[in-house]
Amino acid sequence: MNIVVCAKQVPNPEIPMGKFKIDAQALKVIPPEGIAPVISPFDEQAIEVALRIKEKNPGSKITALTVGAGSAGDILKHALSMGADEGIFLSDPAFEGSDAFGTAYILSKAIQKLGNVDLILCGRQAADWDVGQVGTLLAEDLGIPLITIARKVEVLNGKLSVERALIDGYEVLEAPMPSLVTVSNEVGLPRLPTGMGIIMAARKKVAVWKAQDMGIDVAKVGKNAARSEMVKLYIPVREAKCEMFQADTVAEATVKMAVRLREAKVI
């Protein structure tokens, strides 16, 4: 059984607010000094689901994919240290500035090149922009069934059995393979890499695929092909104000407060 997990590098969600900075002109987050980016937590949980399936289906292979540049491929080493069998870094200058549509297209071409894929797992959304579109668009590009927000994924009698999280419970869905499933945090905590896993991951070579390696039409990727545009990036400013009321009794203070709240159009 061949399983593909799509992952993304994101700024560490544990960054102290005092160190979180942006470049409002370039519309980018400034990487904080001394705090390395990490794999998106939902994607890490998708790897955990793949490993659980592999444990119950010996002989399965897990391939981790990521799109990016520079150090973005480092998260593949983390996937390998957890137990993934192969990591492939999809990196090309033509990919820079791709939106969710472009990223899904790149991933679809990589998966088509791999061939014979039985299951594709993605995090329900990335932990940076929280858009949650890539998994859905990828399933559309590949023309395969899609199940979102999974809290449990199993392979039973050659088919997928997925518990999909709902607001007030869950529903059980069945799907043929290949299918794509987006994984939610309800699956539980991912396993920690073992010491031997870290050593083995360091020894493994991560393949790098360029646009031409996957037969990608560069007109469909990059900033010029993006269907969405970021027009503003800013850190919200929250102001707190306190107003004191002078009164001789609780009743008088209550009346004054009610009048002030009405003036402020709160009530």
Q: In CATH, what is the homologous superfamily?
A: HUPs
Helix content: 25-40%
CATH architecture: 3-Layer(aba) Sandwich
Largest sheet data: 9 strands, mixed
Write the CATH fold name: Rossmann fold
Number of DSSP helices? 7
* Net shape: globular
Strand content: 25-35%
- Tell me the series of helices and strands, N- to C-terminal: EEEEEHEHEHEHEEEEHEHH
User: Would you tell me the overall average pLDDT?
Assistant: 95
Distance between the termini: 60 Å
**Rg, Cα atoms, Å:** 23 Å
Widest beta sheet: strand line-up: 11-10-9-12-8-1-6-7-13
The structure class reads alpha/beta
Low-confidence stretches: none
Number of strands: 13
- How many domains would you count in the coordinates? 1
Q: How would you describe this protein?
A:
By secondary structure, this protein is of the alpha/beta class. It has one domain: Rossmann fold (3-Layer(aba) Sandwich). 28% of the residues lie in helices and 25% in strands. It has helices at residues 41-56, 74-82, 100-114, 134-142, 195-203, 211-214, 250-263, and strands spanning 2-7, 9-10, 21-23, 28-30, 38-39, 61-67, 86-90, 119-123, 146-156, 159-166, 169-175, 179-183, 207-209. Strands 11-10-9-12-8-1-6-7-13 form a 9-stranded mixed β-sheet, sandwiched between helices. The chain has a two-stranded antiparallel sheet with strand order 2-5. It has a two-stranded antiparallel ribbon with strand order 3-4. A hairpin with a 2-residue loop joins strand 10 and strand 11 (169-175). The model has no long low-confidence stretch (mean pLDDT 95).
